[in-house]
Amino acid sequence: MEDNPRRFVNMDEEDLQLNLARVKDDALKEALNFGIGLHHAGLVESDRQLAEELFLNNKIQILVATSTLAWGVNLPAHLVIVKGTQFYDAKIEGYKDMDLTDVLQMLGRAGRPQFDNSGVARIFTQDSKKDFYKHFLHTGFPVESSLHTVLDNHLCAEISAETIITKQDALDYLTWTFFFRRLHKNPSYYGLEISAEEHNTIAAQQLANDFMIEMVNKSLDELATSKCVEIYPNGDVDPTPFGKIMSYYYLSHKTIRHLVKHAKPNASFVDVLSWMSRATEYDELPVRHNEDLINAELSKNLPFQGNTFGLPMWDPHVKAFLLLQAHMARIDLPITDYVGDQTSVLDQSIRIIQASIDVLTELGLLSSCLQMVKLLQCIKSARWPQDPPLSILPGTNVKYLKDTITLQKLSTLPRTQVEQLAKKLNVPNSQQDSFASAVSTIPNLDVRTEDVTALSLTVSLKRLNPVVQREARIYAPKYPKPQTEGWFVIVCDVAKDEILAVKRAGWSQGPGQSVNVGARPTAKTVIKLPEPNRDGNARKVDVLVLSDAYVGMEYEVLGVDIPALPTVDDDLDKSKKGR
Fold this sequence. Notes:
Elements: H1 13-22, H2 26-32, E1 36-39, H3 45-56, E2 62-65, H4 68-72, E3 79-83, E4 86-89, E5 94-97, H5 100-107, E6 120-124, H6 130-138, H7 151-160, H8 167-175, H9 178-185, H10 202-225, E7 229-231, E8 237-239, H11 241-248, H12 253-262, H13 269-277, H14 291-299, H15 316-329, H16 337-362, H17 366-381, H18 407-410, H19 415-424, H20 432-441, E9 445-450, E10 456-463, E11 486-493, E12 498-506, E13 522-528, E14 539-547, E15 554-562, H21 570-578
Parallel strand pairs: 1-2, 3-6
Antiparallel strand pairs: 4-5, 7-8, 9-10, 10-13, 11-12, 11-14, 14-15
Helix pairs in contact: 7-10, 7-11, 8-10, 11-16, 15-16, 16-17, 19-20
């Protein structure tokens, strides 16, 4: 038994109890009693900040943390112990070595400039790795490039920006990079075998050139397979619409490839959820030891089981699939680590879905595109598509919401009727003000079409009720980051399930200008229509305006008459040419 169990506590009992009262996590509360702090992604933000604050002010003397602390927070310590240099990687179903930069970053926290003249760092690792880490610490390793591992995505971005328009341009681009310098200095690191005798010879330079040509060709072929670029026999390279979408949203071309390959008409909600969960951006979602068992248990409480996904339970994409469902179902997560993981999944989700909407538009799949928009609404609202629209509001209970009004109708009600509705829906008295406040956030729109020509039309949006949140923020208490109101303006033919154009609209008043509280903003968006068939006859289109945040909030202008293309009198045209 420890003689003085509180020897790491540097504050009086009253101060300790005040700090313990602020803690939400039971494990952290127990540890702080003994002057030991905890810091990891599973803690809520307030607990992490408290642990940082106490350690920084010397009120506790030990902080047990994950490696990410070394990157995110400046918290030096007199003694740093790296307990183990491996972590569990679900992809290989085993442990792998930490990145050396992570180890170096952690060791760099040793020594407090304001208190110490020196710092102490200790690494606990296997006997077989001791010599390696001694060499690493005392001699060091050169900094190497990682460009070769993601060259295809970088090339697509440059091709989309038209910085690269030929294969030769791509090779020239490589010669301007750090990778090019390191390839000649340390070729074996990049998979190019050159003997010591051949270094700095003309033959070695030729081998390096051939290696780079092969890299460029392989990367461009990968992009072409993903339909992100088009390669011509003369060596010219052009971006496709898919390539521009990939570049705009900072996605991997493999994400686009998977979506283009699996997209289909009349996709279901689970289809589009599955497509986005398989995005390459979720490859690095951490799956820790035994989390496959936790995923299996979590899956039992969700509408779409993880075992229907077609991948093992330890796969990060299955975990993303389950965490997104848990968010929409608003259920408690099984362990605190999943809280940070879910936030990471949600952070990535918006741009993946936005890109997917653009891809489905390019493919002309209206119903599937509408399902993807619905998924975006559900993720921001943290609700399922079949949930009653009013279930997003505070104090509501799903069992009282059958046959209630739509959000569009709700947004038109005066305050007195909103209060009456809250009582009718059995909203607790303590939450009725919050209910009314949330209702006032819901937008009420007037949608009109104007300036209609054969090749374009203008859609005008006007918010009929005033903005009550700065920057026109939406009511989305479950989404981790603030979101502002946005709208998808879709021109389509609903009967034929064809989509002609999509444009996003918002209340932005211009660069550096935000929407003021109390304003009733307007927006106009001009939509270019694809050229009609050869006959150029008049046609009808439908205009749908969908919220990007509220499930089921949709405005329709059906049967908009698009005039025929102006015709030229052939006889008159010939007489002019004959003059």
